[in-house]
Design goal:
The protein has 372 residues and is α/β, with parallel strands linked by helices. The protein folds into two domains: 132 residues, Alpha-Beta Complex (Aspartate Aminotransferase, domain 1), CATH 3.90.1150; 228 residues, Type I PLP-dependent aspartate aminotransferase-like (Major domain) (Aspartate Aminotransferase, domain 2, 3-Layer(aba) Sandwich). Helix content is 38%, strand content 13%. The chain has a seven-stranded mixed sheet with strand order 2-8-7-6-5-3-4, sandwiched between helices. Strands 9-10-13-12 form a four-stranded antiparallel sheet, covered by helices on one side. Strand 5, helix 7 and strand 6 form a beta-alpha-beta unit. Helix 3 runs parallel beside helix 9, helix 4 packs across helix 8 and helix 12 crosses helix 13. The C terminus is likely disordered. Bound molecules: pyridoxal-5'-phosphate (PLP). The site of pyridoxal-5'-phosphate has 13 residues, from helix 4.
Length: 372
Amino acid sequence: MSAYWSRIVRDLVPYTPGEQPKLDRLIKLNTNENPYPPAPGVVAAIQGELGADGERLRRYPDPEGEALKAAIAHYYRQFGITREQVFPGNGSDEVLAHVFYALLKHEQPLLFPDITYSFYPIYCKLYDIDFECVPLADDFSIRIEDYLERDSAQIGGVIFPNPNAPTGRALAPDAIRALLRAHPERVVVIDEAYVDFGAESALALAREYPNLVVVQTFSKSRALAGLRVAFAIGQPELIAGLERVKNSFNSYPLDRLAQAGAIAALADNAHFERTRAAIMQSRAALTRQLAALGFVVIPSAANFIFVRHPEHAAATLAQALREQRIIVRHFRQPRISKYLRISIGTPEECAALVAALQNFVSPSKSRKEVAS
Ligand SMILES: *Cc1c(COP(=O)(O)O)cnc(C)c1O
């Protein structure tokens, strides 16, 4: 605390990102990073973009990211997405910040689930946007009726991830369509950070509904969390609003290397399909193995699972795993304090996790297995 801080800064409670431990040889299953490397063409594209001796770094990057916009529009051409409907930015955390500032009413409460991405209330506080948390059902699903029955004039907009985080539960596009129809004068933001792991994208609705914003990221399914690239898709008037904010804040949000790397990632569909299929397969296997150990596993359409054990406290399990050099995420929060969020790793990492948990939750059983 400093006497020089502004009033807003004094009142901020910043987001705490998942730990990025400095230790080597950890099995890191706490921040939903991709366990596989990015498409091989990404590194080549970044090297090419550097030029000889990094010569090209002298020049500013394209402030609008036109080539990346074109690549994203082309990638989603089956939905009729055009370049004017794409807004790239420095990770979805930045894209979302601009969406909050530019496209949501600040005076009426923005609606989002009580259990969701914990960054949303933080943007609200930063920008002085009113908000209201809508409780998930007991099974952690989003009850769309709770949002449909609200009076449009009394809400500022709606946002949630699909699949939701940290639960992993997905909602069908019909529910999102109903929401867009119920509140035509309000923006509905669908944060699709995990959509490539088994949910259906709302992008199919982008042409039809002028109040839809879909946000996607290269951090999870494209294995580029370190490069910081994401984008919003919406109708051109919404995108123009985002560009006004961007150009009032930082006109070069994406550096040259990020733009080149992201374009290369989109170009390699075979790598994308292979790695996401492997992750979904590991998720299914891990779900079965943890259920066999007595865990309750929430059905997940994301690259993580949300689990609890009826006989073991989540904090104790997290600590026991940490002692085996395996890091998972535990949220000390009402309703979910009994749960652990575990990112899907490689098959070897998942096996190490299961072995560590086996020793902890049923020592006699695993001893027997070792003996036989
Ligand atoms: C990981 C995540 C993001 C942020 O992704 P970046 O593009 O890396 O900033 C956004 N929303 C949700 C729900 C996430 O889990």
